[in-house]
Hints:
Layout: E1 3-4, E2 17-25, E3 36-44, E4 47-51, H1 56-59, H2 77-87, E5 90-94, H3 97-100, H4 109-121, E6 125-129, H5 146-163, E7 168-175, H6 189-197, H7 199-213, E8 218-223, H8 228-239, E9 246-253, H9 259-271, E10 277-284, H10 309-327, E11 332-337, H11 362-374, E12 380-383, E13 389-395, E14 397-403, E15 406-412, E16 419-422
Parallel strand pairs: 1-13, 2-16, 4-5, 4-11, 5-6, 6-7, 7-8, 8-9, 9-10, 10-11
Antiparallel strand pairs: 2-13, 3-12, 3-14, 14-15
Amino acid sequence: MHAVAAPHLSAAPAHRVARTVVTVTDAGGRPVPDAEVAVAQSRHAFEFGNIAFDLIPLANGEGEVRDVGFGGASAHLERLADLWLDVFNIGTLPFYWRTFEPERGAPDTARLLQTARWLAERGVTVKGHPLVWHTLTPSWLDDVPLDKLASVIRSRIVREVTDFAGVIDTWDAINEVVIMPVFEAEPNAVTRLAAREGQIAMVKLAFETAREANPNATLLLNDFNMSPAYERLIEECLEAGVQIDALGLQSHMHQGYWGEEKTLDALERFSRFGLPLHLTETTLLSGHLMPPEIVDLNDYQIPEWPSTPEGEARQADEVERHYRTLFGHPAVQASTYWGLTDDGAWLGAPGGLVRADGTPKPAYDALRRLVKEEWWTPETVVRTDAEGRFTLEGFLGDYAVTGAAGAASVALAPDGGAVEARLG
């Protein structure tokens, strides 16, 4: 039986590759023997993500960039879209309540829905971030009486999850709960409610409301706090019966690369829950690092924070090492980089993979080489055997099988179960 295989599979993590038998059939389901077919990988099973904030104006045909809390490149949008789509297969859109619904009853639904559909049409899975968070709440929420807050929050969750169902089915259900009840950087209604109700009640409110609105949704608990406090929160939520689909681990490295040892320690500690791990927010800088004495990253914002040649070389090395660590761990299902470009980047930091002028940094090239070359099954042509079969061995994901009778899509799954490619 003829086989399709990537020559570098022997060096790939075993949990990222599989082998299966594909039977090529015609439109009527009959095997197509002794026929040439082209086989090409079209998508990774691993979710290589980035925020898609910069693409909102482009998807909506806007000439003016509107505030989304941060992000929103002002130039080179079509070029940025090409760079984005060449590497990433999952995009995060901003649902920060303050900018999504600055005026009560007037949410920015149409604009984000158009963006989500634009991404989905290009094969991108779309994620919403976040449904509940104590930061970036709208000013009008502060006027809501405490005993009515939970109801207002539930209504917000139901509206977003329902309006976007089928286009956005993955959500950070609640963000940064570890500090939510004691957050003091700015007064806000969500912290007031969390202080009264407690962490578990807030998590249940977010997850149960979102689940009821869309039973098929993938819901994440997301946090920057990698301490035992987050582990305890997860334990308590699971004991309380909260159905968590995946754990979100933030890795903003404005103060320096974690290194393999620290990263692996976090992955091991959180993988014990048996849930998929999503590295939801990763940044690595290509300029000077934030001083180590800064506790809240938001407290360090300076007029200029340039990317430098030395910093870009360091960033490229660290991006490659970080992604190799994540791809090599079987519990990691997804990794989202937090910003494509330095133009409009969070905190003004040079954390993008692309410079403000739209040119890729070495870090972008390094990540693309991993995603589309080293971890990609090359296109090839193979001939089916007498029973219309060939063996496909490659990286987990989707593949296009094309022959004289048409084309079909097949998925290479971890179980390696036999699949049919029905052409037509």
